[in-house]
Design goal:
Structural class: alpha/beta
Strand order of the largest sheet: 6-5-4-3-2-1-14
Shape: globular
CATH architecture: 4-Layer Sandwich
Largest sheet: 7 strands, mixed
Distance between the termini: 42 Å
Bound molecules: zinc ion
CATH class: Alpha Beta
């Protein structure tokens, strides 16, 4: 399922969604959908919905911008079931404090991320501390986390599962590890950092050498090439959506990033998968993915076990 830009009545789908997005159960046959509120070094926040659950993944725009952009999707912040944090850097967490003034939205973070943020928080926070590597449940989704190399306290990536669909979230990553490749198999949609084009970073005259070193270091960010090679290693028949995120405004451009991914994937896979880029300033369309697995289609595990006796 792709980004559906128009519907049968000619109204862009994102506009149609606005009309009914306060109701649940609007996903039709898609298992999940997401919309990137904004992504880049200026701030990152993404809305993910499953059948019963609405999560904000990172809250790195200002609270004001998050509220404005949720409103564009006709979504009330009170309807969020949780804010799930990858790490404490300002471009992923700066909106949390103000967003929680007079609002009780649980914040899911591991202990070191919580610790790194707590000292500066004025709001009362309903922390839900998870252990990296231990899955946890929010509503009808299960969230798996795993560690990633980046210069933060205990940064993680996620695979979020619900209604039979798998959504991979990988951003702010210094380099690709075998663990990542294993964890990110069989995704339906992959939200992945493509921070910089190597050549544009090298030629960039605005950034001091030390900053360039940090970006390209083992605890910095993924280049288009690194992201493309990772995507090619985890792409399966299931994968229908790739959203490239955290693009540098000076050292990357959507066209270069998409072309790099497409050339790595090869024409056969490319025909099956949509590749998009998230923008810093504009809310993306809703992107639907996965097909709902009906209860009767789920293997009756208990019955099967019973057959052993
Ligand atoms: Zn970061
Ligand atoms: Zn970041």
């Amino acid at each position: 399922m792709g980004v559906e830009m128009s519907s049968s009545n000619g109204i862009p789908e994102s506009m149609n969604d606005r009309a009914d997005s306060t109701k649940r159960g609007k996903l039709a046959k898609a298992a999940m959908r997401f919309s990137v509120l904004g992504s880049g070094s200026g701030g990152n926040a993404t809305l993910l919905e499953c059948q019963q659950t609405r999560l904000l993944i990172d809250a790195g725009l200002s609270a004001k911008q998050i509220l404005l952009r949720l409103d564009q999707l006709n979504i009330k912040p009170e309807s969020l079931d949780g804010i799930v944090l990858t790490h404490e850097h300002g471009d992923h967490a700066r909106g949390v404090d103000v967003l929680l003034r007079n609002r009780n939205i649980p914040v899911y973070a591991n202990a070191l991320t919580k610790e790194a943020m707590s000292w500066s928080m004025k709001s009362t926070v309903s922390w839900r501390v998870f252990e990296t590597g231990q899955p946890f449940r929010v509503g009808d989704v299960e969230v798996f986390s795993f560690p990633i190399p980046h210069d933060a306290a205990d940064p993680v990536a996620f695979v979020i599962e619900g209604s039979g669909a798998r959504f991979g979230v990988l951003t702010d990553v210094g380099y690709v590890t075998q663990g990542m490749i294993q964890n990110l198999q069989n995704l339906d949609a992959f939200f992945v950092e493509a921070n910089y084009d190597e050549k544009l970073l090298e030629e960039d005259t605005k950034r001091p050498w030390a900053t360039k070193q940090r970006i390209a270091s083992k605890h910095g960010h993924l280049s288009n090439t690194q992201a493309s090679e990772l995507i090619a290693q985890v792409a399966s028949e299931r994968l229908s959506e790739i959203m490239l995120v955290h693009l540098s405004s000076d050292c990357n451009c959507p066209q270069k990033a998409i072309e790099r991914v497409r050339s790595e994937l090869g024409s056969e896979t490319c025909a099956e998968v949509n590749v998009s880029c998230a923008s810093q300033n504009e809310v993306s369309s809703w992107i639907h993915f996965g097909e709902v697995v009906q209860a009767e289609e789920v293997a009756p595990t208990i019955f099967k076990q019973g057959q052993l006796f």
